[in-house]
């Protein structure tokens, strides 16, 4: 019997006796007060009178009425640029950030520099411990807690700029892993520092037989590519032939649904999938129980959340928030409706829109799902389709035709006879395009009343094209960078879509 595994599992289960019962609403009120107290002496805190907010009769309401919304471009132009350009201190958070997270996401641009303070690093580590403690709910065997954890993120070889370091958030987090965790961490510090994705994967492939991996963590698309490389290089049928003790995959950054079928095809037996929500701005949520794939907001750990109902009055055409948009606190939200996520954090982000939309699946537990991006809601002709609904439609195709479609993108494109939703599905399957188009159209009509109404007016129909999934990875490699936090844009504007179709001419 693995004594260390029994010990670790025993400690995790013992936390049932010492952890207080959660009260997300009260936790959020306390976090807001702590953030304001810490930020009151900064330039931002003085400008927006944090002292006055703290001394008011209603801190939450006064905060909302005093501090405006920010997105990256606004807060960087007005505040953050002085930190990374001139090393100004006490701007939006005490001191000067030691790190900046370079965020490309689905935009393809790496110009965003999001401050990551020591307080945020500690908050991310604390959230990681919370997630480990939540493993008690998944009934994993003791020997799981003795196996390696392969974290496939961006390079930990951070770039030095004046008095701070820059890199993607996964690389920053991995470079700050606690000392007690290093014995479990793979691929290890030397391989993790390799910047070139293909070279790093080649090293992982070479070392794979020497590791006893129990868990994987990373973006699904890049994780799949790495697993395929290991399988092909060692002439395996599935990844469990080389890592027989693999039991958990911690996904993150994007919805796992579109990748589920193709990912499971690489396995030799079922494993536990646990979703996480780590953004450049902080560790936001993680799946805490196996009964649901929703994630629990981390409400007591350096982030104060607000939720703006996603509707036409709240969102401008460019995806930013209207100044008069209504922001709700946790006790005011309702289940099963889309909200724009707004955050204030220990990294000096204040009422900051990160660009994601979420829905609550359980308000009392503060459990959410990511439903899309504010800029990537497909609403050109009133169809009002979130990425979550698009993912459901693709999953429907996978089930109906018994195929794998791990990647896709689309655009509301204008043709001579009107607008069509033009889809590119990443699949190796050979299914008649007419059947795919008809099935997509019928499913969306049934699942979304706005889409059905749009189909009776300006939206003429659906056009479907199929391409090899590898093409999506080549697009990412050419326009951004392989691996790390890079994600494929699910919905494109017409200009970007024209670039995409020109790119496809190479294949």
From TrEMBL:
Protein name: GH3 auxin-responsive promoter family protein
Organism name: Pelagihabitans pacificus
GH3 C-terminal domain: residues covered: 389-494
Superkingdom of the organism of origin: Bacteria
Span of domain GH3 middle: 298-363
One MF annotation (Gene Ontology) recorded for this entry: acid-amino acid ligase activity
InterPro entries: GH3 (IPR004993), GH3_C (IPR055378), GH3_M (IPR055377)
Record-level GO cellular component terms: cytoplasm
């Amino acid at each position: 019997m693995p004594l260390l595994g029994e010990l670790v599992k025993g400690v995790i289960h013992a936390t049932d006796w010492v952890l207080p019962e959660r009260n997300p609403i009260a936790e959020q009120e306390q976090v807001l007060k702590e953030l304001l107290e810490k930020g009151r002496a900064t330039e931002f805190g003085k400008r927006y009178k944090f002292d006055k907010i703290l001394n008011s009769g209603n801190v939450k309401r006064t905060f909302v009425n005093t501090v405006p919304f920010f997105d990256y471009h606004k807060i960087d132009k007005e505040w953050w640029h002085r930190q990374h350009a001139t090393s100004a201190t006490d701007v939006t958070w005490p001191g000067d950030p030691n790190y900046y997270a370079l965020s490309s996401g689905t935009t393809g641009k790496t110009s965003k520099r999001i401050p990551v303070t020591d307080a945020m690093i500690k908050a991310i580590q604390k959230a990681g411990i919370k997630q480990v403690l939540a493993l008690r709910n998944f009934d994993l065997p003791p020997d799981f807690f003795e196996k390696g954890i392969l974290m496939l993120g961006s390079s930990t070889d951070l770039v030095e700029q004046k008095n701070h370091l820059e890199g993607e958030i996964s690389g920053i987090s991995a470079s700050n892993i606690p000392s007690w965790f290093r014995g479990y961490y793979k691929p290890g510090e030397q391989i993790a520092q390799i910047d070139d994705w293909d070279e790093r994967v080649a090293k992982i492939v070479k070392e794979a037989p020497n590791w006893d991996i129990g868990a994987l963590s990373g973006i699904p698309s890049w994780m799949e590519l790495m697993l395929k490389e290991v399988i092909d290089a060692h002439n395996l049928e599935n990844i469990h032939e080389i890592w027989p003790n693999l039991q958990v995959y911690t996904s993150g950054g994007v919805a796992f649904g579109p990748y589920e079928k193709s990912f499971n095809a690489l396995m030799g037996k079922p494993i536990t999938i646990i979703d996480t929500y780590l953004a450049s701005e902080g560790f936001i949520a993680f799946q805490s129980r196996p009964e649901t794939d929703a994630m629990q907001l981390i409400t007591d750990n350096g982030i104060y959340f607000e939720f703006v109902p996603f509707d036409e009055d709240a969102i401008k055409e460019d995806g930013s928030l209207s100044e008069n948009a209504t922001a709700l606190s946790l006790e005011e939200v309702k289940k099963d409706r889309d909200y724009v996520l707004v955050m204030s954090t220990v990294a000096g982000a204040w009422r900051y829109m990160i660009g994601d939309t979420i829905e609550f699946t359980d308000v009392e537990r503060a459990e959410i799902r990511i439903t899309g991006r504010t800029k990537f809601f497909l609403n050109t002709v009133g169809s009002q389709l979130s990425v979550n609904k698009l993912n459901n439609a693709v999953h429907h195709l996978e089930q109906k035709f018994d195929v794998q479609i791990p990647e896709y993108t689309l655009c509301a494109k204008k043709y001579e006879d009107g607008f069509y939703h033009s889809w590119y599905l990443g699949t190796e399957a050979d299914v008649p395009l007419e059947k795919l188009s008809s099935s997509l159209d019928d499913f969306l009509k049934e699942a979304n009343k706005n889409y059905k109404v749009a189909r009776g007016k300006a939206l003429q129909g659906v056009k479907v094209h199929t391409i090899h999934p590898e093409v999506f990875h080549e697009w990412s490699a050419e326009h951004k960078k392989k691996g790390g936090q890079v994600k494929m844009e699910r919905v494109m504007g017409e200009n970007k879509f024209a670039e995409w179709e020109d790119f496809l001419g190479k294949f």
